[in-house]
Amino acid sequence: MKQNVLIIGLGLIGASLAIAIKKEHPAVHLIGWDYFEETRIIAKNQQIVDEIPTTFEEGAVKADILLLAVPIKTSLTYLQELAALPLKPTALVTDAGSTKQEIMVLAEQLPFDFIGGHPMAGSHKSGVSAANGDLFENAYYIFTVPQNEQVAKRVTELQVLFQGARAKYVMLTAEEHDQITGMLSHLPHIIASGLVNQADVFNQLHPRAKQLAAGGFRDITRIASADPQMWTDILLSNREALLALMDTWQTQMTEISDWLKTEDQTKIFQFFENAKDTRDNLP
Ligand code: NAD
């Protein structure tokens, strides 16, 4: 496949997708851009990309496909910058951001073809040094297509490009995507980080607790090590869905407090039994 592909953001996701593309399509010319010079140098030296242009604009105007793999708010800024550049008329732009509604609303107004993407795999590690071409194997790769049917059909171009990632492609509307990831990813992230912060205050009163934090606590809080800037962007970008989910969560916590106050053994047992049944039957 002879194509110029520009990847903007050579961190965990951008560099991992670059490796996956190269694996399947060695003839693709990969152009990489990152805000940090050190990252650009590593990506070039490790042959994760073929070319680092002098400026981002220089790479953009010669690209057939452009992938934004930067924090969500940064992607919104880049989309506006791209709209002011003389991109190839057939250029196709996509992103890897963890929320989809906000970016789809903006992209629908811009003068190039855009299809939203979200490779649903990751790590609490970030940056180019964490890149891994197998990161997305068997993970879901969600595409959010625009209303324009001609542009929507171009999703196959991206599916071919990312074949080397060995992910399972799924199509979702932006709204459905944000509701589902809110429940399965963003709310758990808030809870995990809240637990770590609560334990931190607690540890100051009980210094032995830190030493004893093991198994369960470590398992449930692993994701709290992820990049704080990325998660700030994700929360602010999925506010509505998260506010509704947090209301439901708070109602649940209040119920458990009430059962504890009234020593309602049956309700407490049912709470854990229901969770165990559901967890044991996850596909
Ligand atoms: P990362 O921190 O590993 O990489 C982001 C890269 O973007 C860094 O190399 C950084 O230098 C670069 N960058 C930041 N601002 C920039 C700018 N203005 N111009 C050019 N480069 C800039 O983060 P990541 O995990 O690769 O996340 C990238 C995107 O992928 C985010 O939108 C995130 O929501 C999404 N995503 C992350 C995960 C995950 O688990 N990490 C999973 C799926 C999707």
Description:
- There is one protein chain.
- The protein has 283 residues and is of the alpha/beta class.
- The protein folds into 2 domains: 4-172, NAD(P)-binding Rossmann-like Domain (Rossmann fold), CATH 3.40.50.720; 177-280, 6-phosphogluconate dehydrogenase C-terminal fold.
- The protein is built from 13 helices and 7 strands.
- It has a 7-stranded mixed β-sheet with strand order 2-1-3-4-5-6-7, with helices on both faces.
- Helix 8 packs across helix 12 (239-261).
- It is elongated, with a radius of gyration of 21 Å.
- The model has no long low-confidence stretch (mean pLDDT 96).
- Residues 8-14, 34-36, 39, 69-72, 74, 96-98, 118-119, 122-123, 126-128, 227, 230, 234 line the site of nicotinamide-adenine-dinucleotide.
Label this structure with key terms:
elongated, Rossmann fold, 283 residues, 2 domains, 6-phosphogluconate dehydrogenase C-terminal fold, alpha/beta, binds nicotinamide-adenine-dinucleotide
Largest sheet data:
7 strands, mixed
DSSP helix count?
13
Structural class category = alpha/beta
User: How do the strands of the widest beta sheet line up side by side?
Assistant: 2-1-3-4-5-6-7
Low-pLDDT ranges = none
The oligomeric state of the chains shown is single chain
Order of helices and strands: EHEHHEHEHEEHHEHHHHHH
Give average pLDDT, whole number: 96
- Report the CATH C-level class of the largest domain: Alpha Beta
Output the CATH topology of the largest domain.
Answer: Rossmann fold
Helix content: 40-55%
Ligand roster: nicotinamide-adenine-dinucleotide
Q: Please report the distance between the alpha carbons of the first and last residues.
A: 36 Å
Shape: elongated
| Share of residues in strands | 5-15%
Total strand count, please?
7
Using only C-alpha atoms, the radius of gyration works out to 21 Å
Number of domains: 2
Question: Architecture of the largest domain in CATH?
Answer: 3-Layer(aba) Sandwich
The CATH superfamily of the largest domain appears as NAD(P)-binding Rossmann-like Domain
